[in-house]
Amino acid sequence: MHQVNEKIPTTSWINQVIKPEEYKPYLVDGKDFIDDDKIWEQLNSSQEPSLERVREILAKSFDIKTLDPLELATLIKVKDPTVWQEMYEMAARIKHKIYDNRIITFAPLYCSNHCVNNCLYCGFRSDNTHEKRERLSMEQIKAEAEAIAGRIGHKRVIAVFGEHPDSDANYIAEAIKSIYEVSVKTRKGHSEIRRVNVNAAPLCVDDLRKLHEVGIGTYQVFQETYHHETYRKLHPANTIKGNYKWRLYVHHRAYKAGIDDVAIGCLFGLYDWRFEVMGLLYHTHELEQKFGVGPHTISFPRITPASDSPLFKQLDHQKHFVSDEDFKKIVTLIRLAVPYTGLIITAREKKEIRDDVLFVGCTQTDASTVIGIGGYAKNSGQQNIDEQQFMLGDTRSLEELIYDLARRGVITSFCTAGYRCGRTGDQIMDMLKNGHEKHFCKLNAILTYREWLDDFAGEETKKAGEAVIRKEIEEVKKQTPTIFSKKLYDLTMSYYERISNGERDLYI
Amino acid sequence: MANEISTFDLERLANAYQIRIWQCRKLGRRWSFIAGAGVEKVLPSQLVYEAGDLGFFVQAETFNEAALVEELKKLTTKSICC
């Protein structure tokens, strides 16, 4: 492993990274678009709504329209469990309306845990001397991708990088290229990573262009907390991450650099969850208004224990930790507020929670997850808190997840077709909103599921998966020619045959 | 080097051929959307023409592909006068 000397950055180094001219033009009277007082006013002014009012708002969500902040604040105020049940059911219906009966899977690929920041809740923070620091070489990154694509069968990764000069934009761009280069022979065909999403520090426009040019998938940056004061307390001022606005406007810079799929998120448990859900909605509105495209996905990780984390020793912060019941409400509210977006639930959460919230609106999840640096190639099967950012709650393999989902009638999709034929950015947003995207996804889910079953499934999983495929094909057949043209149906079935015979990466 | 086609021309082609057409730029393994015209339908996406790092996708039941490709060739190579 490449060893790097940890150094706390000097103020001059911080000043080189942050370019105020790249976020200041977006400010209004020097202020960003998160108005803490206004959000609290909206949350406090809403009374518990009537059922009639709730249903009006739900109808708007079902029409795939982004809610207004006051409408979301109104839903947050609901107390009646029977009304919440109605909201859970509507969230599930909306998810089905847009994304159909499928879940997309991916693997996180941690490339470097060197970090110059010192966030109080994070295992990678620079003051944590217990953490083992590593940065993978390109050969090691390829070995990770080979294990993910060749042994597990994932087709998507999210590559994760700490904020450090040794994992800068050039390193990230090289990592993306290296991952795309990997192709592994499988039982019946071959497997490769077809979409590389990135979770990295906020970069400047020039650096983001470098990622755009090598074919980045989604660029994901979480604000962590939208509450200014909490952000200030948790991210020391002498660090790069201490600059709230530089982080908040990174998606603006990404659009400017040509990246058309961006992802937002919030680390729940740092501040009041009601405020954070409102923050996510304001962020969505800002992106929609400025660029005509909202977030491709929204993530809502809950804080989990990290190595030597000061936050876990502070009782006053623990009051914001989110219960399982509230977590389900959070997922439901985000699905209702931003109906078109993809929602990601990760293996941070325990199996029971994941199984529950997958059905109130989540679209993507990870499995066979390893978050230690270089962990896929090592394949130790162990978690070590001093080698990873946090502890996982669900260590199911991809095969176990696929089997569990298949038994519930859900198809696992490895589709990356949108990126291969330009269904990206506002194009895909329009298709999500008008309901067309789910039809393509349905067909591509069948094709990619067939690939995975043939290349990676054990007998039991294959049997469960075959039943799901038969049901899906039957549905497509019934919807031909009303939804699917005869031409499209025939093409899909010819691809299906070719994939069954060992061809790979055919998509609609 | 190939030129991007204007939205005006994309709309004209979409109307003339009764297709959905969109132009993309090849970036690594992906095609990134630039602009499109015509009504989106649930039909296969067909890459009909590539020029440099630009690519043109079409959705249609039937259309005159040869004629469309000829037009795309001309449009992507025409010189821009200011």
Q: Which strand order do you get reading across the main beta sheet of chain B? A: 2-1-4-3
Binned strand content of chain B: 25-35%
**What structural class do helix, strand and pairing data of chain A support?**
alpha/beta
Strand order of the largest sheet of chain A: 1-2-5-6-7-8-9-10
* Helix content, binned percent of chain B: 25-40%
Beta strand count of chain A:
11
Low-confidence stretches of chain B: none
The count of DSSP E runs of length 2 or more, i.e. the number of strands of chain B, is: 4
What's the oligomerization state? Answer: heterodimer
- Estimated share of beta-strand residues of chain A: 5-15%
Give the overall average pLDDT of chain A.
92
Hey, which two chains have the biggest interface? A-B, 36 and 22 residues
Overall shape of chain A: it is: globular
Report the C-alpha radius of gyration of chain A, rounded.
Answer: 22 Å
Distance between the termini of chain B: 18 Å
Can you tell me about this structure?
The complex is a heterodimer of chains A (508) and B (82). Chain A is an alpha/beta fold and 508 residues long. Helices cover 47% and strands 9% of the residues of chain A. Chain A has 22 helices and eleven strands. Chain A has helices at 11-17, 36-45, 51-62, 69-76, 81-99, 138-152, 169-181, 205-213, 228-234, 244-248, 250-256, 273-291, 315-318, 324-337, 351-357, 375-378, 398-407, 417-420, 425-434, 437-456, 459-478, 486-500, and strands spanning 102-112, 156-161, 184-185, 190-191, 195-199, 219-220, 262-265, 297-299, 342-345, 364-366, 411-413. In chain A, the strands form two sheets. An eight-stranded parallel β-barrel of chain A has the order 1-2-5-6-7-8-9-10, surrounded by six helices. A two-stranded antiparallel ribbon of chain A has the order 3-4. In chain A, β7, α12 (273-291) and β8 (297-299) form a beta-alpha-beta unit. In chain A, α4 (69-76) packs antiparallel against α12 and α4 (69-76) runs antiparallel to α14 (324-337). Chain A is globular, with a radius of gyration of 22 Å. The two termini of chain A are 41 Å apart. Mean pLDDT of chain A is 92; it is low at 1-6. With 82 residues, chain B is of the alpha+beta class. Chain B has one domain. Chain B has helices spanning 7-17, 65-77, and strands spanning 20-27, 30-37, 46-51, 54-59. Chain B starts with 6 loop residues before the first helix and ends in a 5-residue tail after the last helix. A four-stranded antiparallel sheet of chain B has the order 2-1-4-3. In chain B, β3 (46-51) and β4 (54-59) form a beta hairpin. Classes of the chains: A alpha/beta (508), B alpha+beta (82). Chain A binds chain B through residues 176-177, 180, 194-195, 212-217, 258, 260, 419-428, 430-431, 434, 436, 439-440, 483-485, 487-488, 491, 508, and chain B through 22-24, 27-34, 36, 40-45, 47, 55, 57, 61.
